[in-house]
Write a structure and sequence with these properties.
Elements: E1 2-5, H1 14-20, H2 24-28, E2 35-41, E3 44-53, E4 58-66, H3 75-87, E5 94-100, H4 105-111, E6 115-120, H5 123-127, E7 133-134, E8 137-138, E9 142-148
Length: 149
């Protein structure tokens, strides 16, 4: 397994990015703003983590995705750690992530050392054209989690 920083046209990873965010319109808002780290197995992209500089020392995970066959093997955690290490020394003190209030994603980030920070009410209903469901529950609010780095 190799992890590299994507160069050039990041849209070649759109299939991976769409695993984390169903809206190409939303992805276009951040795809060129940050750094995209890609996990590759035998030359095939199997995971990604895109982080952006949100100012005042805050680094934000905008997208984290692992293809289903590689999930539950620690690759998401490895990608987060890789992004932290790659951005070390750039003045960041906090890593944050915004995610749907879901029993699948929030506990994952909590196991990675994140703690709940704040909630943006109605984020998904206000910003997406169609309802988004995770684990059979419609996502409404965006939950932000943070950790010190």
């Amino acid at each position: 397994m190799d992890i590299y920083e994507a160069e050039g046209d990041r849209r070649q990873y759109m299939d991976l990015l769409l695993l984390a965010d169903e809206s190409p319109v939303m992805i276009e808002k951040y795809i060129d703003r940050g750094r995209l780290f890609v996990a590759s197995d035998l030359g095939r992209a199997v995971g990604e983590c895109l982080v952006t500089d949100e100012g005042r020392g805050v680094l934000e995970i905008k997208s984290l995705a692992v293809v289903p066959a590689y999930q539950r093997h620690g690759l998401g955690r490895v990608l987060i750690r890789h992004a932290e290490e790659a951005c070390a020394g750039e003045g960041f003190h906090t890593l944050q992530v915004g995610t749907g209030d879901s029993e699948l994603t929030v506990p994952f980030y909590e196991r990675c050392g994140f703690v709940r920070s704040h909630v943006v009410e109605n984020f998904f209903t206000d910003n997406y054209d169609a309802p988004i469901y995770e684990a059979g529950v419609q996502l409404v609010d965006m939950v932000y989690l943070r950790k010190k780095i």
